[in-house]
Amino acid sequence: MELTGLSAALPTPADPSDHGFDACGRADGPADAFDALLAHLRATHVPFSVLWELTHTCNLDCIMCYNVPQAAPELTTAECLDILEQLAAAGVLRLTLTGGEILTRRDFFTIAERARDLGFALDLKTNATLLTPETADRLAGLDPVQVDISLLGATEATFDAVSGSRRTLSRVLRGVRLLQERGVRVKLNTLLLDLNVAERQQMLDLAQELGVYYEQVFKISAADDGAPRASQHQLTRPQITGLFLADGSPFVPQVRPMTSRTCQVGLSSCLISPYGEVFPCIELRVPAGHLRQQRFDEIWRGAPIFNELRDRHTLANLPECRVCPLNAYCEGRCAGLAWKEHGDPYGGHLLACQQAQARFAQVHPEAAIPETPLQAKNHSAAPVGRGETKRGVVSAIPLLVR
Ligand code: SF4
Ligand code: SF4
């Protein structure tokens, strides 16, 4: 398997997620017709892609889960069906349904089948442990573009240690096979932690053996309420550097214009929570509005946070990042993680700095690694390392490995 660039996909057919479908896409200019279409949708602020957390209930208890269930009731079936109509009317094309675990919602298929009838391109995220032949049949009937499933270890013991459950690996693999037998396109995703990084190659081999698309990431998201949930499991900078070197893919520093964006947050995608809240994205949970009080289109067009991000979220307005000596090596800055660390979506965040330093070390193995402005500012308060922050939040490195 060839490991190149920032994501790994097995086998080789083009992966639609490589086309910048998600808000994190860093493409600054159109490269082909599809990219040109996405650029147009972003420029005209069409809410092309919505990620919807249908529930925060889950049958697993993953160590790094960022969901924080609220006391408020989750959206009812009727509310969900009404929101689907609103999304369709607003121009949403790609709809990703996630949780929690989507299959813990008894009305999941009622919602998903209506979504399919409305013509959305459906992506589903499930842990796959609750799949049965019957639910796999019904899921295949939705004709999803892709089903994303987490692979958190190559052995039962490791997967169980991460997922807080029993026999998770065999249950996940059973679910994967049930979907594959029905022709559903499956993608496995691994969050590399100190607990499972030793099984990195075994997981790659397993994905290859299964013949599924596969991606490894380093991104530990802070919990929605800012709790330092998995800080002790974050990979260190030397570990990240080691993975870059082991990967062997060349990295080319990229000088970006001041008008460029580190991500596409707020332009053509957003997140809906199980309670009806609308946020710019899964990390940047600054409230934009509430679907129990406003219609989707009203929130999308009028929410101050969306309009501000559309107008201002460029490199020129990131005070630390624009003068950073490593900004040409920085591929992991995330506005949401900066916000979780410092309360400022226009800041940098320490683990993105570590990632940039790891890239610098990859390209210049003999050179001293520069300190970033953010690290200099935090030097005495938060030594570069595990991502402890002013808010006690662990940030994440949205770093994809192959
Ligand atoms: S803020 Fe972070 S999670 Fe949100 S779109 Fe940007 S990079 Fe992605
Ligand atoms: S390395 Fe840190 S300070 Fe520099 S551009 Fe990236 S996030 Fe900003």
How would you describe this protein?
- The chain is built from 14 helices and ten strands.
- It is an alpha/beta fold.
- The protein has a ten-stranded mixed sheet with strand order 9-8-7-1-2-3-4-5-6-10.
- The chain is globular, with a radius of gyration of 20 Å.
- The chain starts with 32 loop residues before the first helix and ends with a strand.
- One iron/sulfur cluster binds next to helix 11, helix 13 and helix 14.
Strand and helix layout:
Elements (H helix, E strand, L loop, with lengths): L32 H11 L5 E5 L23 H14 L3 E5 L9 H10 L3 E5 L7 H9 L4 E5 L5 H8 L4 H14 L4 E6 L8 H11 L2 E5 L19 H11 L21 E4 L4 E3 L9 E2 L5 H7 L1 H9 L6 H4 L12 H8 L7 H14 L9 H6 L21 E2 L1
Parallel strand pairs: 1-2, 1-7, 2-3, 3-4, 4-5, 5-6
Antiparallel strand pairs: 6-10, 7-8, 8-9
Helix pairs in contact: 2-3, 8-13
The structure holds iron/sulfur cluster (2 copies).
Query: Bound compounds, please?
Result: iron/sulfur cluster
| Protein structure class | alpha/beta
Mean pLDDT level: 87
Number of strands: 10
General form = globular
Termini, distance in Å? 9 Å
Tally the helices: what do you get? 14
What percent of the residues sit in helical stretches (DSSP H or I)?
Answer: 25-40%
Low-confidence stretches: 1-21, 382-402
From N to C, what is the helix and strand string? Answer: HEHEHEHEHHEHEHEEEHHHHHHE
Strand order of the largest sheet: 9-8-7-1-2-3-4-5-6-10
**β-sheet strand percentage:** 5-15%
**Roughly how many Å is the radius of gyration?**
20 Å
Biggest sheet features: 10 strands, mixed
